[in-house]
Each structure stands twice: as structure tokens, then as C-alpha cells.
Amino acid sequence: MTFQQLWQLRARFAGRLSTMYGQEVPAYTTLVDVSAAVNEEHLARHGADAERLGSIDRVTAERHGAIRVGSPQEMRQVARIFAAFGMHPVGFYDLRDASASSVPVISTAFRPTDPGELAKNPFRVFTSMLAADDPRFFGPELQQRLKEFIDHRILFPQELLDLADRAAEAGGLEEPGAERLLDLATGVFELSGEPVDHAWYRELEAVSAVAADIGGVSATHVNHLTPRVLDIDDLYARMEALGISMIDEIQGPPRWDGPDVLLRQTSFRALAEERVFRFQDGTVGPGALRVRFGEVEQRGIALTRTGRDLYDRMVAETDRRLAVGEGAGVRVDVARAVWEAHLPRTEKELAVRGLGYFTYTLDRDALVRAGGPVIGPDVGLGDLIEAGVAVPEPIVYEDFLPRSAAGIFRSNLTDEGFRDDAQAGTDYDITVMSDVVGRPVADPHDLYRRQQDASVALLREQLAAVAAR
Predict the structure, then answer these.
(1) Is the pTM here over 0.90, yes or no?
(2) Domain ranges of the chain
């Protein structure tokens, strides 16, 4: 029998979900094909620079998925399942106030946390939980009915949970246990054919289409699978040319002449999918729901906390300029002007100013040219970068942006929904999310900083060895 390590299980799981989702949402297959074509042509035009944020093999194989659950119990169960694939909770995202629309969810992302594991297979699943206890969205009576509905359903069979626990503890599974785990894990995220209670679904939909998709059905499902592309603007234009309706704009940073940072995302609009409804008179009949869509992403450099503060200020400045009518109301043009005014135009300057996360390698030729003054232990990292002795290699941003996620959600909603802002919202943060998930939720900055610090420590050791000769 062949032992399947966690990363191998993860790669197979991502492949299974991709095949399944392509069968359920054929436009997703088109999205994947166009993404691959864009990547190949981008690589042909730009050569090695195209792979600066990941090899073409990794980028083309890369996916992130999105699912939604309804309660802390379901969130803890899904955490057990993803642990079987070497995926751990990273980051806290509060989408409730990230949009003017009603998006009553809090989220984390399950992904590998070790750089080596990410390189083998970087599959991630953005996982949202309904904030059913937030009185801005749900009154006491609706809260109670939601709780009863969600507590009554079973999303994840015990056999799957037991197999997942075995895999996580052992670091993998032998066949045929691995195959059984994959069958069960893929199956729970397929679109259910069970009839949907029409009145209950529409009642929740009046609050939020996202709430209805979570609490109005008896099962969960993949909401989208996202390929990674090297030129999202090219992808957007090609999809439109194929007659596939895309959302109005690309979410996240604008296209500009400087370094790509963080994450840019877009999607095709949610398509009407046939579903079976149970109506109030007891009859069952056909209908349609519009909740699933095809997202695509372009990843950039991870920003430090200082860099993220600058990013947030640039987003706020873009909003301010748009509010007073600058740039003829075209967000991308206004944002580009803000970026050009505030963000460094080179990776080297990002590194020198401590705005981005990088690993560093030693350039021995530059060290010879610089001479002794840059070898001492008191020489700052910025001076080493400026001298060309420390060569920065960008760390790719592996995580998400709340505003962009909410923007994608909002662009696919049927209407704005309802939120009573006169009420005080329920408090959630990364500590509360850790309690919800039942295991510590990692801060992405800690992971990036640890990777950067390890490379800087190695660089210092190499410099010390040179100085000791």
C-alpha cells in the first residue's frame, strides 16, 4: 500500500474539487482554460520575470476555494477536515462592515503555513461562517429559527471526520483510506439536489443572499474555485470577448507600472442554476438560484504591517478623491494616481523602506565591491540592500483582503439586503475566531515575518563567516 502524505492528499483534493466544480459550473472550465492561455503567453513575453512570484507550474496549478458554514460547530468540523490536507486557519476577515451590502459573515482561510508545503501545493479554502448572533441582521426570533435549522442538519458525516482525524495525526493515510477520505471530502462539497424550502430561503434572502445560501439549505457547497493568473487585466478582456459577463471592476490594487502587491481579484457574474424548491402548499417544483460564480486572482508581494497601513491610507485616499468627483468617477484611474504618488516603484525600494516582505540572498560579487564597511554586525539591512549585498526576493501574498472579498460577494448578490446599523454589532476578532475554530488562527504577518527573519539570520551568518576569514 502507498502512504499518501498530507501534501499529496491536498493536491488530489484540489484536483477532485476542480473536476467536480467544472462539471457543476461549465463556465469555470472556460475560466481555467483562459487563465492557462494568459499565463503561457505572459511567460513567453516576460521570461523569467513572469515567475518572480512563483513558478509557472505552481501558478497554473494553483487554486483557492470558498465555502460557507452556519455555526461554530460546523466551523470546528470543517477545520478537522482541512487539517487532513495540511491546511490550517490563517487570518481573520470581517466582511460585515467591508461592504455597504448585507454580508453577515466572518471568515478565515485554511491553507498550508510552511513555505515548503506552499511550494508543493498552495491550495486554500476561504471559509465563512454566518454571524447569526449579530442583531444588525437577525432579530431574536429569526436568530432562534436559524439556530434550530442549522443545529438540525449534518453537513459532515462521522466517517469523514474520523478519517480526517486519523490523517492529521499520522501525517497522511495509506490507500485505500486515502481514497475514501477524498471521496467523502469531495462529496460533502457537491451541490445538493435536496429540495430547498422556498419560503424559508426567501425570508433569509431578504436579509442577505449570503445568509440564505448558508442557512437556507440543508448542505454546504463550493461557492467558487479560483485559478491564479499572471495578467488579470488580459484575462478580464478575454472573458468579456467570449461573451461571459464579468463583474464591473477588478477588486484590490490598480494596474500600474510599479510592483504588484497583495491581491487583485475579479469574477464572472453568478449564473442562474436550476434547483428544486418545496413550496408552502407542499408541492415540489423547479426554480433557480444565483449564488455561485467564477473568481480569478493575481497575487503580488506580501506587505508588512507598515506597508498595509500605507495600503489602507491609499484606499481611503482613493475613496476620498472619488467622493469629491476626481477622476471622472473611474476608480481604477483614481487609484493608479494615488499609487503613483505614494507607493515605491521598485521592489528594492519596497524592501529598503520596510514596506514588503522579502527573503534575502547574499551577492558575493557585490560584497567584494562594497568592501569591509558593509560586513559589520551593526550594518542595517537597508544599507545591505542599497549596496546590492542583500538581494531581495519577494514573498508572495498568500492571503486575502476583506474589502475585495466583500466586493466579489456584493457583485453577485441579487440586492443589497438588510442591515440595521442602529444596532450594535457582535464583536469578533482573531481571538474569537480561534475559539470558534477550536484551534489557533495564525496571523499572516507572523508567518511572513518568520520567513523573512530566517533568511536575514542566514544572511548575517554568511557575512559573519566572511568577516571571520
Answers:
(1) yes
(2) 3-299+400-438, 303-346, 358-394+440-469
